[in-house]
Amino acid sequence: MTLNEENKQSKKLFHKYKKTILKAIDLGFKGELIIKPKTLWLGATNNCNIKCIMCYFEKENTYINVDDLKKILKTEIKNKKVFGKTENIDLTAGESLLNPEIYSIVKLLKKKLPKSKISIITNATLPIRGHIAKTLKYIDRIGISIDGANEDTYEFIRRGAKFSNIIKNTQNIVKLKKREINSLCLLFCAMSINVKQLPQWVRLAYFLGIKYLFIQRAEVREKINFDISKFDLLLVDNKKIQNIIDETQKEADRLGMFITFTDIIKNNQKTSISKSAIKMCSMPWNTSPWLFKNKKDVYPGSVCCHMIQNKNTILNQEILKNKSIEKIFNSKQYWDIRKKMILGKFSKNACSKCQYYKMTQWDEDDLKKLKELIK
Fold first, then answer.
1. 302 CA to centre of own chain
2. For residue 18, is pLDDT > 80?
3. Over the stretch 242-268, which tens digit does the pLDDT of each residue have?
4. CB 335 within 8 A of CB 26
5. pLDDT at 46
6. How far is CA 112 from the centre of its chain?
7. How do beta strands 297-300 and 291-294 pair?
8. Mean of the pLDDT values across residues 358-365?
9. Of the candidates 259, 272, 271, 355, the residue with the CA atom closest to the CA atom of residue 307
10. Residue 318 burial (C-beta neighbours within 10 Å; 0-12, 13-18, 19+)
11. Whether pLDDT at 118 is above 70
12. Mind giving me the DSSP string for 181-248?
C-alpha cells in the first residue's frame, strides 16, 4: 500500500467514525464510559548504567516498587460501559533490570494480569545470572539495543558499555530464551555514523541467533547531554540511504530474518502524514502514559514519549500523582487529550514528524466495538 493510499484510508476512517469517537469522549467526560489501556507503560526505573549519545531521558536513581505497583493496578471505578483490556505491559524507561525489585514486580504482574504479555528493552550490559536471569524467564518479549556492528561504533554511541560484554550477555539471553526465540528482537537507532553498518548488523543478529529486527531513526531533540544533530540521518544523501536499506533488506531476506524500518527511514527519510492519520492515532486510547517514580511519588508522564513536549501533551502531574492507572486513564485531563487528538490540535506540532504513526492507527474492528458499546 502506497503512502497516498494509507492517507486515504485514514481519511475514510476519520469521516466514518469521527462522530463515534466524539460521542465516546462526551460519555467519558461524564464518567459514563471507562477506558482500560491495551498497553500499560510502567517505567520500572529512570536509572541507567550507561550514557547513550541519543538518549533524552533524565537519569535518576528511582525505582517503582511492589507497593507502588499495587496502587497502580488498583481497581476503583465500577461502570457497565468498559472499553478495552490490558494485553501488554511495557517495563521500559531506563535500564529496567537495574530495579532491585524487578523480579518481584514481574511476578506480581503475572499474578494480577496473567493474560498480559510483559516486554522490556534492555541494553544487555548486566550479566545474565541470579534474579536477572529469573526475571527474563518471565518476560514475554525482550528488545536488545545494539546500535553498531563493531566495537568502535557501538562504544562511541553507547558510552560506558563494552561491546564484547554485550555480545556475551546477548548470547546468554538467547540461550535462556531458546524455547521462545521468537520473543527476542534486536533494535537499532540509525544515525549518520552507523547507518552504513546495517547489512553487517543484520549478519551480527544472525550470528547471535535473533531473527526479528527493528530499525528506527535516532530522534534529534533539545536538552540532551550530547548534541547528535551532527549525526542526524537527514544529513546523509537520500540515494545512499535507499541503497543501504535495499542491501540490508536483501541480506535479511537471504538469511531468513524479519526486518522492520520506520517510515521516516524507508520513505527517503521523509514523512508525509495526513492530518487524518494523526487524528486517527489510537495512542491516547490504547496506551497508558509513562508512569515513573520521582523521589517518593509515582507520576504520569506524557501521553506519548515521541510527542514534542508542550503544554498540550503533558498531564497535570500533581493532580494525578500516586493515582491508579484506572483513575489516570479516565481523568478529565486524559479525555481532554483524546479530544484534542481527534480535533487535530496535535497535527501541526506534537505529531507532525512521527515515525511510528503506522503502528498506532485505529483498527476498524476496535472502532466497531466502540460504536456498538456506546449505542
1. 12
2. yes
3. 999 999 999 999 999 999 998 777 765
4. no
5. 87
6. 22
7. antiparallel
8. 90
9. 355
10. exposed
11. yes
12. GGGEEEEEEE-TTTGGGHHHHHHHHHHHT--EEEEEEPP--SS-SS-GGGG-GGGS-HHHHHHHHHHH
Query: Which CATH class, in words, describes the domain spanning 125-270?
Result: alpha beta
Residue pair 283/64 in contact by the 8 Å Cβ criterion: no
Q: What is the grid cell recorded at 145?
A: 539495543
Write the DSSP string, 91-117: --SS-GGG-TTHHHHHHHHHHHSTTSE
Q: How many CB atoms lie within 10 A of CB 9?
A: 17
* Dihedral Cα 220, 258, 282, 347, nearest 10 deg: 40
Q: Interhelix angle for 198-208 vs 163-176, to 10°?
A: 50
pLDDT at 103 over 70: yes
Separation of CA 17 from chain center: 26
Asked whether the beta carbons of 202 and 251 are under 8 A apart, the reply is: yes
Chain centre distance of CA 98? 19
Phi, psi angle pair for 78, to nearest 5°: -115, 125
What gap in Å lies between CA 185 and CA 143, rounded to an integer? Answer: 5
What is the C-alpha to C-alpha distance for residues 156 and 55, in angstroms, rounded to an integer? 13
User: Residue for cell digits 524455547?
Assistant: 179
Residue spans of the domains in the chain: they are 1-47+62-122+271-375, 125-270
Rounded distance between C-alpha atoms, residue 180 and residue 178, angstroms = 5
Write down the H helix ranges in the chain: 3-29, 66-72, 102-112, 130-138, 151-157, 163-176, 198-208, 238-254, 263-266, 275-279, 283-286, 317-320, 325-329, 332-342, 364-373
CA distance 191 to 95: 22
pTM across the whole model:
0.92
62, exposed or middle or buried, with CB in 10 Å at 0-12, 13-18, 19+?
buried
